[in-house]
Design a protein that fits this description.
The protein is mainly beta. The protein contains 2 helices and 22 strands. It has one domain: Porin. Helix content is 6%, strand content 58%. The protein has an 18-stranded antiparallel β-barrel. The radius of gyration is 22 Å and the shape is globular.
Length: 433
Amino acid sequence: MSVGDFQHGFRARIRRRLLLRAAVLARLRLRRASACVGGAALCISTLAPHAASGQGSNLRLGPLELDLAGSGAVEYNSNINHSGTDPRWDIIWSAGISVTGVWQMTQYNELRVRVGARFDKYTRHPELDSHRNFLILSPETEFTFQVRVRELEMQFFDRVEFSSSAADVRAVDPDTGDPILNVLAFNRLENRAGMLGRWELNPYWQLSFGGDRLDVVPWEREFESLRRWQHTGRLGLHHDIAANMNASLLGTVFENTYRRPIQPDSRGYTVGGELGWDPTELTSLSATLMWTAIDFDAEMGARDDTDTARLTGSLGASHAMNRFYNHELEYRHDVDFGFVSNTIIRDTVRYRAFFLGFQRTRVEGNVTWTRGRESGGFLPEAFTRWESGLLLRYSFMRDMRVHFRYRYATKSSNIAERAYDQHSVSVGFTYDF
């Protein structure tokens, strides 16, 4: 739901860093590298035939090769409603299943279907159980069709997500106009459908383009103020300056419309550039600088008439220190659409580390600092949040993995009910049939 979603270059930068890390590990004989085509701002999976997942397909439905996987977990959460005055703890049991299907129609045309579904059972707050709301569909649920005609590649997609997380949300009651704090569950459907394309002008220049529509549909009436749809168009020009350096010019235009006259409709654009440089085979640096401008309609029920015109951007660095340890650091300054305000301005610093020194075991850690402030509206909030996490994955066998995850978050805020501490501990497994 963020304006950062419009900054296509930033997301591509993250993808490129992940791909670089995969390539580094391949050179160190730890795993194969992934492939990215389309330059810095458009990453599309390779169009050559491949299996439905890393484990390979295990079912076939006509021409569709399917890969089926199941998962289960139990989690303790000390503060499921993100409250500083009335925290509620719970133990959550979950079970899920994911299916990936691939139909390789021709050498260059591919139809891919991915569906992930999960059921959650709350021990102390059964009103939050998935079956009382809906079956949760994970963010990777999508339908994509890829086609290539000479130097032109296009991907048509439809990504669907049903989610129930409170996600530290506030809202405005559509009947009373009062703000809603300490939300237990924000049940919603998010659907993004559209097209991404890449045209290889020559070996050094590429043109990317695309457009999509996002629909956000809350499930309960109390969140009707957040029901909206958004249209976005994208255009980018990318140049490979050298084998280890590339630059991009990026632009987006968008229009955001709310169903209820509480949050104001808006339209805007982002324009800017991105630079990526790999000074060594083990190091990657990147920078993004965008001008973001959003024009909101006259003040609505949310009581915020603030427009936005400011620089946003990011800096990132990743480094593989040796065959066992690699890490990355990033800073991001961005603007998001608010829940009870027009926008939220955030500064974020994140450090992530990955350790692969133990046989069959992967260890990941992260620390994130975020400072944000709302542009106006009901009780405009200014906050600082620290988050840290640790994840351990162990592979029992080729088809089964178990994990242990710990996460801690602490938030200070000028609104007492919004300042909180939260601990989360979970154990679970994944099995690829």
